[in-house]
Design brief:
Chain A has 477 residues and is an alpha+beta fold. Chain A has 15 helices and 20 strands. A seven-stranded antiparallel beta sheet of chain A has the order 15-12-14-13-18-20-16, with helices on both faces. In chain A, strands 5-6-10-8-9 form a five-stranded antiparallel beta sheet. In chain A, strands 1-2-4-3 form a four-stranded mixed beta sheet. The radius of gyration of chain A is 22 Å and the shape is globular. Chain B has 459 residues and is an alpha+beta fold. Chain B is globular and about 70 Å long. Helices cover 34% and strands 22% of the residues of chain B. The chains are: A alpha+beta (477), B alpha+beta (459). At the A-B interface, strand 9, helix 7, helix 8, helix 10 and helix 15 of A face strand 9, helix 7, helix 8, helix 10 and helix 16 of B.
């Protein structure tokens, strides 16, 4: 960045809130995905006025601007694909209000997801969306990416828990949409903004719905000798109309990687485990857990274990939530995919993924939100070999194509970002995309806000771009 | 209407065939919106036909109102212009149903009742027990954004509509969302259609997440001398681990309008200040017992004058009446005016008292229904419909709009006599988010052909 522009930003925000040296910027070239793109400058706004100043600056100088929380995103949403400024919201990390009576929280975008639930806990409440990165990821990122997590099966994704937003628009103005009330007159702008991946506006405040903590919880581990039995169990649970609070699956390869590191108690010789949770009233949880255990056994579960106490429950979950860290110990580089299929198609899809891995010569692990059909195949590859990386991408694409072919979607919770823009035409035709970009252009006419995301760019629509080689030290999903 | 543009019947016939379009005044009367008749109606049998109709409307600069069963056409401002009614009730097919995935996809003109009948044999449901249930279509229900008692547990349509296909104001078929229960691909354009009053386009297909039908259901009723005690019980339930499927508080007048059977505790019948709490819950055996026990104890602690558990038959009747509260209120007065107030539960008491005083100042009878999820339906029920009562209604509505502005709740008037609409905008004042709504409207409907002037701020 030219030194005159740099000085101007330093004047606007204070020199201590502007980073420009290559060493400082390096960290912001990555997020949790395999993407890479570097900003020219990083700023740390302290309040809404700072955000307005940065937006105004970006407009005046025609510089791209990208919002960023903790950088845990998995689709390159917070990377400066076309350079410019990355605005990091870590200083805007205040919880402004916990309104226990109305079960609402008002927070700044840089507040960590976990901190909202911690602040609400004394009131018997929590913020339900719980992405695996919840101890690091921030509400701004959750809102704009419409984050999910294991418990969204029963509680819904971020979109179901956001009631209002304060926005700084690309023209530098401020707008408030929605609020504490369940709905407000006019078009449902909040629903449009949630999941817009930072392409329509920056969020400077969010009004969230808090949910009561359950009175009772039962966590089950079901162990299977065949992947098919585990996937059929999930399909049966869904078909029987049982809605667990969470229904996670780890296949044999993944559970062994996890077990060696975490010692969560997953049997090393099993082909798959299901981590199932039911919650609610004391009187409901027992029978529900029994019913689920019965479905597991009917599908040849070798063992169904119920966590006896909080410690055992935490240990089972620790295995699930730290799985990607465990995988990172085995391979320097891996590619986590995110696709969705109808739950009824789970058994055939897992078989297809195994076939694709075999055809393409990759080991593919599976750890995913089975209950809502949200797959996360993990493809291990050697990042030092560009050909292997390209082949890993092709493998991932084949999986996503299968998801679409059986009626699914190309991303369930990670977002499109710069990872899957080229795959958008698998789901959306020109008319659909024209309408979406029409909305984007109405909000963000100069494309200065998070350019190059979600939508396939120009004529290259549908063709595969060659990505930069990822760095082996950056794989910390 | 005389100001309606000329529509060519032969053009319409060319698209939908004779018998599926009309310019007969007698037939058009059934498509009148706030007394305005269109110049023509066309009933497309496919998305393709609907696209052609919209393209024709664009070419001829016709104003279009999409409709289905026409049960809620009055729920907006009158259109500035109205030439063509596009009736989608022939788009009524089941597109896909995967019971094992709990997802279903239907054409937008399908009656909601037919959809529920498709789900019922699989012990599944769509948690929309909306007003006008005997004929309302999927499209009209979503376009008007009417809520239902079941929102207490399941949320509103935006929480379980997974995707949608629609025709934009550029005469193009497009879509948003998808068919799976979890999906973050692209902007959630489909959610913008919910409550948009048909001003963004014509919905042609909707994909829903379905829900398992509970094993058993029961109801609970409690009577209170005053609103404060009923609201105190709502608060107790909110703080408890209970998660009822429905939870509402009604004043005595509303309870009377709904059903005499909902009246409990004979001592309250004479008291105009009587209130009832009505809850529905579900589960099996011990769970049902727990609800009954806890609710009864809470009722006692909040000075209920009477309470009891309703069996399945009585519960079903209670829900049927509660779901139809709006039409029943509309029938109860020749100039019924229903104000929908959205706020947070901690404000219920204050808002109810404020609007009660306003109605009293304007000498208007009222009925009140509070949905615990955050909505108050406040009905003004004049005994006659004359200049004086319209004057009273206008005065009361204006004061409530003012109260809403000052005290931070939101109020709209979705149901009222036409005469009132020339006095006030039923959507209240446009807020600071209005410029964004204009952007959305222009992106979907750049020529402004869909229901011009019907929505917030004249959109």
């Amino acid at each position: 960045m030219q030194s005159a522009l740099q000085r101007e930003l330093e004047r606007l925000l204070g020199a201590e809130n502007v980073l420009t040296t290559p060493e400082e910027l390096r960290l912001y070239e990555y997020d949790g995905s395999v993407e890479q793109a570097g900003p020219d400058c990083v700023v740390f706004p302290g309040d809404r006025d700072d955000v307005m100043r940065v937006m105004e600056f970006a407009n005046r100088h025609g510089v791209p601007l990208v919002g960023r929380g903790a950088g845990t995103g998995l689709s390159g949403g917070a990377l400066a694909r076309e350079g410019g400024i990355v605005a990091v919201f870590s200083r805007m990390n205040r919880i402004l209000e916990i309104d226990a009576e109305n079960q609402r929280a008002i927070v700044q975008p840089g507040v960590v997801n976990w901190d909202v639930s911690s602040a609400a806990k004394p009131f018997g409440l929590h913020f339900a969306p719980d992405p695996s990165s919840q101890r690091a990821c921030t509400i701004g990122g959750n809102v704009l990416e419409n984050a999910g997590g294991p418990h969204t099966l029963a509680y819904g994704v971020t979109a179901n828990h956001v009631l209002g937003l304060e926005l700084v628009l690309p023209d530098g103005s401020v707008a408030r949409i929605g609020g504490k009330a369940a709905e407000t007159p006019g078009y449902d702008l909040t629903s449009l903004l949630v999941g817009s991946e930072g392409t329509l506006a920056l969020v400077t405040e969010a009004t969230l719905r808090l949910v009561k903590l359950p009175e009772a919880v039962a966590t089950l581990l079901a162990v299977f000798d065949a992947v098919d039995d585990a996937t059929r169990t999930v399909a049966d649970i869904t078909a029987r109309g049982i809605t667990p609070a969470a229904c996670e699956m780890l296949d044999g390869w993944t559970l062994r990687a996890v077990e060696e590191w975490i010692h969560a108690g997953y049997p090393m010789d099993s082909a798959a485990v299901l981590l199932l949770e039911v919650d609610g009233l004391r009187e409901a949880v027992g029978p529900h857990a029994d019913e689920i255990a019965e479905v597991c056994r009917a599908n040849h579960a070798r063992e169904v274990r119920r966590a006896r106490d909080e410690a055992e429950r935490d240990l089972l979950w620790k295995g699930r939530k730290n799985a990607f860290g465990a995988v990172g110990r085995l391979s320097p580089t891996y590619y986590v995919q995110d696709g969705v299929i109808p739950r009824s198609k789970l058994p055939e899809t897992l078989r297809r993924i195994a076939e694709i891995g075999h055809e393409m010569g990759f080991e593919i692990g599976n750890i995913f939100h089975a209950g809502d059909g949200n797959l996360h195949p993990i493809i291990l590859f050697d990042g030092r070999d560009p050909l292997q990386f390209q082949r890993a991408v092709t493998t991932a694409d084949k999986i996503i194509e299968h998801c679409v072919a059986v009626g699914g979607a190309i991303t369930g919770e990670h977002g499109v970002g710069m990872e899957k823009d080229r795959l958008m035409p698998l789901l959306f035709n020109e008319a659909d995309l024209a309408l979406m970009t029409g909305i984007r252009d109405a909000f963000n006419p100069r494309h200065l806000l998070n350019p190059g995301k979600i939508f396939p760019s120009g004529k290259g629509c549908g063709e595969i771009h060659v990505r930069p080689l990822p760095q082996a030290d950056a794989r910390t999903a | 209407m005389s100001d309606s543009r000329k529509v060519s019947l032969s053009q319409l016939t060319g698209v939908v065939g004779a018998g599926n379009c009309s310019i007969e005044p007698g037939e058009l009367a059934a498509y009148a919106v706030d007394g305005m008749r269109p110049a023509a109606v066309a009933r497309p049998a496919s998305q393709g036909e609907a696209v052609e109709l919209v393209r024709y409307a664009i070419a001829e600069k016709l104003a279009v109102v999409p409709c289905g069963a026409r049960t809620k056409l009055g729920m907006a401002m009158p259109p500035r212009q109205y030439d063509l009614a596009i009736d989608v009730s022939r788009l009524n097919t089941l597109v896909a149903y995967d019971p094992a995935d709990l997802t279903v996809s239907v054409s937008a003109g399908m009656p909601l009742r037919d959809l529920q009948a498709i789900l019922a044999p699989h012990r599944q449901q769509l948690p929309l027990t909306v007003p006008f249930a005997s004929s309302a279509t999927v499209g009209g229900t979503l376009a008007t954004g009417v809520d239902s008692p079941l929102r207490q547990l399941y949320g509103t349509a935006k929480d379980f509509v997974l995707g949608m296909e629609f025709i934009t104001g550029e005469g193009v078929a497009a879509k948003g969302g998808g068919r799976v229960v979890k999906n973050v691909t692209g902007y959630d354009l489909h959610k913008l259609f919910i409550g948009s009053m048909g001003t963004l386009g014509i919905m042609t297909r909707v994909n829903f997440k379905t829900f398992p039908m509970p094993a058993e259901r029961r109801g609970f009723m409690a009577a209170f001398p005053a609103a404060a005690q009923a609201l105190a019980m709502l608060r107790r339930i909110a703080e408890s681990p209970l998660a009822p499927e429905t939870l509402e508080v009604a004043d005595l007048r509303l309870a009377e309008i709904l059903s005499r059977n909902l009246l409990i505790g004979s001592g309250d019948r004479s008291s105009a200040a009587g209130w009832a709490l009505l809850a529905g819950f579900s589960g099996r055996g011990e769970v049902l017992e727990r609800y009954a026990r806890d609710l009864t104890r809470m009722a006692e602690k909040t000075q209920a004058s009477a309470c009891r558990v309703a069996d399945e038959r009585e519960r079903a009747e209670m829900w049927a009446r509660l779901s139809e509260a709006i039409p029943l209120l509309l029938e109860s007065s020749p100039a019924a005016t229903i104000i929908e107030i959205t706020t947070v539960p901690s404000e219920f008491g204050k808002v109810l008292e404020q609007v009660r005083q306003i109605a009293e100042r304007h000498a208007l009878q009222t009925a009140k229904l509070v949905r615990a999820a955050g909505v108050i339906y406040f009905a003004l029920l004049p005994v006659t419909k004359d200049a004086k009562s319209i004057e009273q209604l206008a005065g009361a509505c204006e004061e409530i709009f003012k109260g809403a502005e000052n005290d931070g709740y939101r109020a709209v008037v979705p149901w009222c006599p036409l005469e009132l609409k020339s006095r006030l905008n039923i959507w209240g004042r446009a807020e600071n988010d209005f410029p964004l709504m204009q952007k959305v409207k222009s992106a979907f409907d750049p020529h402004g052909i869909f229901g011009p002037g019907r929505f917030v701020g004249g959109l």
